[in-house]
Amino acid sequence: MKLNNNDILQTRAYIDGQWVSDSNHKTFDVINPVDDSFITEVADLGKVATREAIDAANKAFIDWKSKTATERSEFLRKWFDLQIEHVKDLAKILTLEQGKPLTEAEGEIRYGASFVEWFAEEAKRVYGDVIPGHTRDKRIITLKQPIGVVAAITPWNFPNAMITRKVAPALAAGCTIVVKPAKNTPLSALALAYLAEKAGIPKGVFNVVTSSDSRAVGGELTSNPIVRKLSFTGSTQVGKILIKQCADTVKKVSMELGGNAPFIVFEDADIDKAVEGVIISKYRNAGQTCVCTNRIFVHESVQIEFTAKLAKAIQKLKVGNGLEEGVEIGPMIDHQALEFVEDLVKDAVQKGAELVYGGARNNKGINFYNPTLLCNLDTSMKIYKEEIFGPIAPVFSFKTEKEVIQMANDTEFGLASYFYGKDYAKIWRVAEALEYGMVGINTGLISTTLAPFGGIKESGYGREGSKYGLDDYLELKYLCIGGIE
Ligand code: SIN
């Protein structure tokens, strides 16, 4: 791969400011999901190295938390500047190991960097309170202090932004951190570590442990008493295991888990805009985001028009290798993901769904599935309950507001939701009735650094980004000052 700066492609882990290999030179392969071709091999670390990273973070915490907020902010700002300077290289690495189109990858790098810029500023705004005392001689003050060593376990679908969204607030708050990136996408994480080193972020403050053994590394991160907080983005199934593992040492936990986002099109919606919204929210990263539209509910009176327009828009999506010009849909991350999506479509069709468009693999590469549109769906189909994580748009029809709210909320998940309509009273009613952490109203794109990202129910807890994003990395301490005569 041709990069402007070849040093940004690192293959060793980054612990205590050192680039380290496994003591037995164990490595694992990084694979391009387009054709399962070999990219490079990366250090395959285990429990012992994870413990070393935690110890390094613990040592570094003493000095890092003692820096002024402005000092920490300056490090973050330098790191942000370097990310923007290297945006092209970071995007190429991301596309190569993850598969998303280059323009989307560049968008992710900018999105990821925006968290660093934002929290560089927020670092300076960690305010406490002065509370009127409960007796005449007392005063009450609250302080916010960094929680300590943080562990982050991050996913393959956003190999850059889901790291910066955790690392930036942690560092801004005064915490140090150990990151375990997904085994499919370690290169983006290591590139960020390389730029952190260049930014002068002190050794031990930000550590990256690469591994193919999630159980061993995750086991250490969740059981080691030095780690005071775990932040995880990934599936609800794995999140539940991690929560249990963290219980023994009572760690603070943030979980950004799965979703089953409804996208409702009411009878008064602007249909063209709603179609645009579905394309954005459904097909970003080939449907592999946890805020992707999962079930589309369309009022029966506009269903024919909506479906025809959506089918036309889907047909235009260009599938292929993300490094090629104009490609909008890349591969599934691996064969297992491809088979999962295939099975969902098969199940729906067997149970009577109409396949309007797509419904098959695409021969652009080994893990590609065509953008697909299904209609005449019902609640017995797997696709109604499962998080699709692929480029399938399932359209359900509804008659009443009450019925669609019931269907939209009929899931254990509660991350993102979307609806299109014009009646302002209905907008308020529906927004309040949807049991989700995030609601997009007449938009299919809700992700931004400025807003609190997170879910309810089995989609997790904690909020990332925004002015609330620092809270998960801070402890609130209360001082009661007596003897004030
Ligand atoms: C995710 O899919 O985990 C995050 C998506 C986003 O930040 O928009």
Write a structural description.
The chain has 2 domains: 6-258 and 459-478, Aldehyde Dehydrogenase, Chain A, domain 1, CATH 3.40.605.10; 261-410 and 416-449, 3-Layer(aba) Sandwich (Aldehyde Dehydrogenase, Chain A, domain 2), CATH 3.40.309. The strands form 5 sheets. It has a 7-stranded mixed sheet with strand order 14-15-16-13-12-17-18, with helices on both faces. The protein has a 6-stranded mixed sheet with strand order 9-8-7-10-11-19, sandwiched between helices. The protein has a 3-stranded antiparallel sheet with strand order 5-6-20, with no helix packed on it. By secondary structure, it is of the alpha/beta class. The chain contains 14 helices and 20 strands. Helix 4 runs parallel beside helix 5. Helices cover 38% and strands 21% of the residues. The structure holds succinic acid.
Overview in brief:
By secondary structure, the chain is α/β, with parallel strands linked by helices. The protein has helices spanning about 45-65, 70-85, 85-100, 100-120, 160-175, 185-200, 215-225, 235-245, 270-285, 305-315, 335-350, 380-385, 400-410, 425-435; strands spanning about 15, 20, 25-30, 35-45, 130, 140-145, 150-155, 175-180, 205-210, 225-235, 250-255, 260-265, 295-300, 355, 370-375, 390-400, 415-420, 440, 460, 475-480. The protein folds into two domains: about 5-260 and about 460-480, Aldehyde Dehydrogenase, Chain A, domain 1; about 260-410 and about 415-450, 3-Layer(aba) Sandwich (Aldehyde Dehydrogenase, Chain A, domain 2).
